[in-house]
Specification:
Largest sheet: 2 strands, antiparallel
Distance between the termini: 43 Å
Shape: globular
Oligomer: single chain
Helix content: 40-55%
Bound molecules: zinc ion
Number of strands: 2
Number of helices: 4
Strand content: 5-15%
Order of helices and strands: HHEEHH
Strand order of the largest sheet: 1-2
Radius of gyration: 13 Å
Number of domains: 1
């Protein structure tokens, strides 16, 4: 029995970019400080509370910027 089974952090890294300032975000720190927000069934991580507040102020301005959908 192993505790750390298949927790692959590398998969998460790609999506762990602050959508506001586009800085890479450490998921562990983001969750620890609750620098996360969910919008349109997607979760976003932030480098700081300022970026989180900015995102929550106008989520559509940042949420659509990342990836275009077909
Ligand atoms: Zn930021």
């Amino acid at each position: 029995m192993t505790i750390d089974e298949t927790f692959d952090a590398e998969i998460l890294v790609e999506s762990s970019v602050d959508p506001v300032c586009e800085s890479p975000v450490d998921p562990d720190e983001a969750y620890e400080h609750e620098l996360t927000a969910t919008f349109a069934d997607r979760e976003y991580l932030f480098c700081s509370i300022d970026c989180k507040r900015e995102f929550e102020r106008k989520p559509t301005a940042y949420a659509v910027a990342g990836r275009s959908q077909p």
